[in-house]
Amino acid sequence: MCCPSSLGSRKQRTRNVPELPEVEIIRRKLSPLLVGRTIRKLTTGKPSYFFLTPPKLLEQKITGRSFVSLERHGKYLICKLDDTSQMLWHLGMTGQLLTRERKGALDVHVHLRFEFSDSGPELLFRDVRKFGKVRWLKPGSAEPRLNKLGVDALEITGQHLFEKIRKRSAPVKTVLLDQGVLAGVGNIYADEALFISKIRPLTAARELGKAQVDLLASNIRSILSRSIKLGGSSISDYLHPDGQSGAFQQTFLVYGREGEPCTKCQQLIVRDVLGQRSTHYCPRCQR
DNA sequence: CAAATCCCCTGCAGGC
DNA sequence: TGCCTGCAGGGGATTT
User: Fold this and answer.
1) CA–C1' nearest nucleotide, residue A10
2) pLDDT tens digits for range A188-226
3) Is residue A41 among the annotated active site residues?
């Protein structure tokens, strides 16, 4: 049938990176598969610059350890190990955590392969763009990056968000992406939440009134929850650990819809660049 | 302290 | 058909 590109306008290619819902789904699916299991062997691919902890050191520190819990703050996954050390994972843009039966060759983008002492599936850390991060933390030490994160976006309240942004002159879209303000919102959910809240992304954060920020905070929480229910957004690289795709991308109202009619008012969706990130909004609904 | 800019990387769309 | 260019994006470093 008719293809969208027949409209003639050059459409931006959009990608989706793991944001809070995607990381939370990984956590929920991976947690029962990891907790209680012991790492028998860690294999690293060619050392990539992206490791915060050198692969050899990581291998030395976690071999023989077992998983106690898998937690999440914003877009970070936090593995607690049985010697009270921790392993942090950040998936960057294209990071994937995949489970599979122990067989077959590894493709060149697999950077870590966790094998366990039992005969169950192994775990792969795969990352094409190499923006992902893996860090081991010795017992009792804290990760400065985690300490700088704002509250998890699922917990954000209007009052708290208002306090955090009331003096910020930057566009509200840019401020929502600041992980020190709230943790877990990325490009897609920022655009979608602003649309639902009828707030133009370019608006200076400090111009927003308390009622608007209350609404925004509430919409951020609800859109993230809805995405989790639908398995997250799978446009390009994101997959669940078992290879399943999410379905939330089918409900996007503005993201990646440049040039298409707004679902509310038929005005064409506009794309701008803010803080070097593409930003989508309806010029009529969002004032 | 906040804001703006640049950069890491690689697959792939678009142009010719 | 095939080569070349430019873009996507999180977040850290650096500069203003």
Assistant:
1) B14
2) 999 999 999 999 999 999 999 999 999 999 999 999 999
3) no
Q: Tokens 């593409």: give the residue.
A: A278
Which nucleotides of strand C come closer than 7 angstroms to any CB of the protein? Answer: 7-12
List of protein residues whose beta carbon is under 7 A from strand B = A 5, 10-11, 13, 49, 93, 109, 128-131, 167-170, 174-175, 205, 275-276
Q: Which residues have CB under 7 A from strand C?
A: A 12-15, 17, 19, 74-75, 90, 92-94, 129, 131, 133, 145, 177, 179, 186-187, 273, 276-278
What is the per-residue pLDDT across A14-28, written as a single tens digit (0 to 9) for each? Answer: 767 899 999 999 999
User: Whole-number Å distance, CA A10 to C1' C3?
Assistant: 21
Amino acid A43 reads T
Look up the pTM and report it. 0.93
CB-proximal positions of chain B, under 7 Å: 2-11, 13-15
What DSSP assignment string belongs to chain A? Answer: ---GGGG-S-PPP------HHHHHHHHHHHHHHHBT-BEEEEEE-S--TT-SS-HHHHHHHHTT-BEEEEEEETTEEEEEETTS-EEEEE-TTTEEEEEE-S-SPPPTTEEEEEEESSSS-EEEEEESS---EEEEE-TT---HHHHT--EEGGG--HHHHHHHHTT--SBHHHHHT-TTTEES--HHHHHHHHHHTT--TTSBGGG--HHHHHHHHHHHHHHHHHHHHTT---SSS---TTS----GGGG-SSTT-TTSBPTTT-PBPEEEEETTEEEEE-TTT--
